[in-house]
Amino acid sequence: MSKPSRRRLRLRARGWSLRRRVVVGFGAFTALFAVLMTATVISLVDFVRKGNEVVNRWEPAAAATQDLFADLVNQETGVRGFVLSMNRTFLQPFEQYSDKQAVDERRLHELVGRYPVLDANLATLQAVAKQWRDETAIPLISLVNSHEPSASSLVDDPDGKTRFDLVRKAAATLSSAVNGVSRTALHDRSNALRALLIALSVSVLLFVAVGLLAWRGLHRWVLAPVEGLALQARDVAEGTGERRIVPTGPPEFIDLGGDVETMRRRIAEELARVEQTSEDLARSNADLEQFAYVASHDLSEPLRKVANFCQLLERQYGEQLDDRAREYIAFAVDGAKRMQALIADLLALSRVGRSTDAFVPVDTNLALRRAMSNLDEKIVEAGGGVGHSDLPIVMGDPTLLVSLFENLVGNAIKYRSEQPPLVVVTAVSNRQTHTWTFAVKDNGIGIEPQYADRVFAIFQRLHLRGEYAGTGIGLALCRRIVEFHGGRIWLDTSATSGATFRFTLPERAS
């Protein structure tokens, strides 16, 4: 079985995983949300449909019913005025509202034609209106037009009055029926609006409830376990390395806590090994310091005796020695002195960084002048000079920086050309890295670019010992000093004449 499969089985055995909880919760919310949205949409559609029914059908139907009855009343008033006054002007309302009656009847029929009761009431109104028109209104108009004297007496004819009362009654019945249906439609629209508001309210409450549950679940299943794990990790980072990490929460976080606990144990084991290595290194450093003391004192003393006694032998028995013997003595003295110089340089190289606890501000102008003072005899002998710009104050070890300038300037004096040596020291600030870049430039014999890295290796010499004296440790010591100060040193291969060494040192702390 693969590792992921075993992990899934382990998660199922310990309860629901965070992924499963999220998927199930999201699925339940989605299903409930879909149901509520469907109900909301249905309620909204029903409300819009019933609202449109009220606005587009029943309100116009009620208005059309009133208009139709007003048309009939205006016709009856026009006929009555015409009969009583014998003036045809009064017939204009009758003719005008007769045409309008036809329009209002068609409009009302379009609105209520699908409802049998209302359509029957409309038909009854049309029938009694036609009966009143055919049997009362038209005959009266004909009598007046024929100048019949008895026409005016027929205005209050009981039959005609009865016929128009039937019109009023039919119109009232139709209006009552239309208003009843309209009130029912308004009630239905109110119910649809109530259902829509309920659906929206339930949706809002669902969102709020889901938000609260999601926050509680997030806090309980994610934030609290992560915060607890982070707190334990901080305790370990602050030094409580022996504290065991106990995770809580869903299986994923328990696994994560187990991985962190495994990492903590491994780090603790590594730290124990590092501490043991540090103790071994401290003992080794102590042994090296003891060796350095022996090398500087106990080894140097026999070398001085060898050199002194060889020189004494030459002075005491010089007349008895031939040229070959004197040459052998000179070789022995030179070897002893070179061994002394080599031991001194190795001792200086090994001491870099051991005698300094903290850096202090160092005026590199003063450090360079101290180095020039130490090299004064060599500078005068070579007939050279050393110039410099205004150098900065840097953070470092004063003694080591003097040694750095002494070795670089001393090399420039040593490897001079036929002309008198001239050394120039400058410094440029680099604001981005908060460092100073120094340059030590000379007019000597120079160094080939292919040797740019080799010159900083210990015991590496580019010339024979007979040509230029030295132990081959000077530039290695310079690199050790610069790196100890957090900088770097290199040979500028772009220099067209002489040699230019550049190195960086940190700015003075503000």
Automatic annotation (TrEMBL):
Keyword hit for Signal: no
Coiled coil: none
Bilayer-spanning residue ranges: 21-45, 192-215
Name used for this protein in its record: histidine kinase
Entry's EC annotation: 2.7.13.3
Gene Ontology molecular functions: ATP binding
Histidine kinase domain span: 294-509
Record InterPro entries: CHASE3 (IPR007891), HAMP_dom (IPR003660), HATPase_C_sf (IPR036890), HATPase_dom (IPR003594), His_kinase_dom (IPR005467), HisK_dim/P_dom (IPR003661), HisK_dim/P_sf (IPR036097), Sensor_kinase/Photoreceptor (IPR052162)
Record has Kinase as a keyword: yes
PROSITE patterns to which the protein is assigned, alphabetical: HAMP (PS50885), HIS_KIN (PS50109)
Localization annotation: Cell membrane
Enzymatic reactions: ATP + protein L-histidine = ADP + protein N-phospho-L-histidine
Ranges of residues in domain HAMP: 220-272
Main location: membrane
Keywords linked to the UniProt accession: ATP-binding, Kinase, Membrane, Nucleotide-binding, Phosphoprotein, Transferase, Transmembrane, Transmembrane helix, Two-component regulatory system
Alphabetized Pfam families for the sequence: CHASE3, HATPase_c, HisKA
